[in-house]
Write a structure and sequence with these properties.
Elements: E1 4-9, H1 17-32, E2 35-39, E3 52-55, E4 81-83, E5 86-88, H2 91-103, E6 108-112, H3 115-126
Parallel strand pairs: 1-2, 1-6
Antiparallel strand pairs: 2-3, 4-5
């Protein structure tokens, strides 16, 4: 059983992101006793000095009517680029982010977003 999970939103802003964050936190905390950490600014929050916030049932209370995502999001950044018309996921950037996840004692990620966001998440999974 996981002790602590991270939650990330990525890609373009969209309705319902806060609802998913709230549902994930409430389920993790109430059903499984798992601590939750929000990763701010999408995957970029895992680079350099990490940008995180503790997520509790109290901190996600009242976020449903607010638009967007309380964690912030990006549809660009250092985790994905194009070289010669091909999508490339920079190895060193992903390795550094995975090391930061270990330092933060985050054992699993809940990744909320579209195709691009989930493609980055898949690269994390592969490593």
């Amino acid at each position: 059983m996981y002790k602590q999970i991270g939650i990330i939103t990525g890609g373009g802003d969209a309705p319902g992101l806060n609802a998913v964050i709230r549902a994930a936190v409430r389920t993790a905390v109430k059903e499984f006793g798992i601590k939750c950490v929000g990763i701010e600014d999408s995957f970029e929050g895992l680079t350099g000095e990490t940008q995180t916030m503790r997520l509790t049932t109290r901190s996600v209370s009242g976020i449903l009517p607010r638009g967007g995502t309380m964690l912030g999001t990006r549809n660009s950044g250092s985790f994905c680029c194009f070289e010669d018309g091909q999508v490339v996921f920079p190895e060193e950037t992903i390795k550094a982010a995975i090391e930061n996840l270990k330092k933060l004692e985050i054992e699993a990620l809940v990744v909320i977003g579209g195709d691009g966001t989930l493609a980055i998440a898949q690269e994390f999974y592969k490593r």
